Amino acid sequence: MYLMTNVLPTPTKEPDHNKDVFLRSVLRELTGILEQTVGEQEAEAYVNYVGLSLGRAINSAYREAFSVDRLDPMQVASTLVDLKARIDGDFAIESIDSECITLVNSACPFGDRVIGRPSLCRMTANVFGVVTAENLGYARVEISESIARGDQGCRVVVSLAKGKIEPKPSETEFFGAAA
After folding, report:
1. CATH code at 135?
2. Residue-level pLDDT at 178
3. How many helical (H) and strand (E) elements, i.e. helices and strands, does the chain have?
4. Is residue 112 part of a domain?
């Protein structure tokens, strides 16, 4: 069999496609179809399931990386920032204390493909919530600003203690085995 690949023409400019761009585009289109078909709230529910599964796997990997059975609050914060850096996010700790970890972000791991797809923010909320709750017992996550919704950056507040006030609709609670 003779392959003629060497005689095919090549473009004069590099197309803006590689594996990463392709996968981000696939994810954007899938979430877009979900949002259009079942609505944004239901699309978020599907992304929630993926985020929960990934959160468990990521939590396990970081516990192993830190060589501990359970991450402490500083290790949790480090995990959240390190994870996002590894997938091209630009998260940083704005503040941290015994009650709350507040993170800010100027670059979404999904790149510009996230714009107009707020259901993808559920991935961050669920991964952050699972990792935090599985190690510290509880997390309440709110994404008050997001690139997906047109903000300049993201702001994620992870509360570490269950408050007396019921969660707002924009917040999600996570409960872990830690006491």
Report:
1. 3.30.1380.20
2. 54
3. 4, 5
4. yes
Cβ proximity of 108 and 155 under 8 Å: no
Q: pLDDT tens, 56-89?
A: 999 999 999 999 999 999 999 999 999 999 999 9
Tell which residue, 104, 56, 114, has the closest CA to residue 77.
104
> Residue 105 falls within a domain, yes or no?
yes
Q: What is the mean pLDDT of residues 123-127?
A: 96
| Percent with pLDDT over 70 in the chain | 98
Give the count of domains, the chain. 1
Q: Which domain holds residue 25?
A: 18-175
State the sign of the Cα–Cα–Cα–Cα dihedral 50, 55, 160, 94: negative
On whether residue 3 sits in a domain, the answer given is: no
Q: Please name the residues in contact with 87: beta carbons below 8 A apart, sequence gap of 6 or more.
A: 109
Give the type of residue at 15. P
Quick check: is 8 in a domain? no
